[in-house]
Amino acid sequence: MLDLFNHPASPAFGRLTGALYLSIAVFGAFAIGYVPSQIVQPQIGATLETILARRGLFTLGLGADALVMLIEVVTTTMLFVLFRHVSPVLAGAAAIARLMMVGVMATMLFFQAGLLMIAQTGGSPATAEVLLHMHHAGVWIWQLFFWLHLMILGQLVARSGVLPRFLGHAMSVGSFGYLLDSLYSFAFPDAALLGQVRIGFLVIVTFAEVGFALWLAIRGPRPVAPAARPAFA
Predict the structure, then answer these.
(1) Which of 53, 195, 76 is nearest to 145 (CA)?
(2) Which three-class secondary structure string do you get for the chain?
């Protein structure tokens, strides 16, 4: 397995990258989507009670979050290696943006740990509400970094010559769903039209990301021509 990382041009390297990307989607959907839908209630008191009643699910969500972050570090590095032939500068910028996202996600685990402690010790619901709001704010922040990452990655994919161009362009266009979601959730919660538009972009980026990961995992990237040169710097 370790020898595989010494041959980034091999199809197996691309397939492993795709498989890891898919695993992020699976574990992330559980940790970011399913667990909060079961734990977070309209009232903070009810949320704390649910954390206690379903502590196993809550801590399993924390574990899935941590696993996603570890996989993210490896996957981000592999994505950089796959697309640095297009533009080392932009591939590096995309990698840094994604790692910044992971850093914000890691910080959010402290807020969740604080919620668990308050639920166990009967601490202040007001403090718990602040921690929960800070956790939500963390989502709005990491989405900004993810928007930047996907917008750049999409163009790297489109110009790479190793993957279908439409997947890259769809990823770049759909990435604005994350930016719009952060703006809607934090700054303009009453803008109904903005809320509807962001959903359309998020649908596009979801299909684009899944398609990108599946293409890598199943078919792998096409070999880069020996005479290939970066499409842009």
Answers:
(1) 76
(2) CHHHHHCCCCHHHHHHHHHHHHHHHHHHHHHHHHHHHHHCCCCHHHHHHHHHHCHHHHHHHHHHHHHHHHHHHHHHHHHHHHHCCCCHHHHHHHHHHHHHHHHHHHHHHHHHHHHHHHHHHCCCHHHHHHHHHHHHHHHHHHHHHHHHHHHHHHHHHHHHCCCCHHHHHHHHHHCHHHHHHHHHHHHCCCCHHHHHHHHHHHHHHHHHHHHHHHHHHHCCCCCCCCCCCCCCC
Question: Does residue 7 lie in a domain region?
Answer: no
Q: pTM of the entire structure?
A: 0.89
**What is the rounded CA–CA span in Å between residue 139 and residue 132?**
11
Number of domains making up the chain: 1
Per-residue CA distances from 44 to 33, 115, 185, 221 (Å): 19, 10, 19, 47
Q: Is residue 96 part of a domain?
A: yes
Give per-residue pLDDT as tens, 41-89. 999 999 999 999 999 999 999 999 999 999 999 999 999 999 999 999 9
Domain range enclosing 96: 12-218
- Please say whether the beta carbons of 152 and 94 come within 8 A: yes
Amino acid at 131: L
Q: What are phi and psi of 175, to 5 degrees?
A: -60, -25
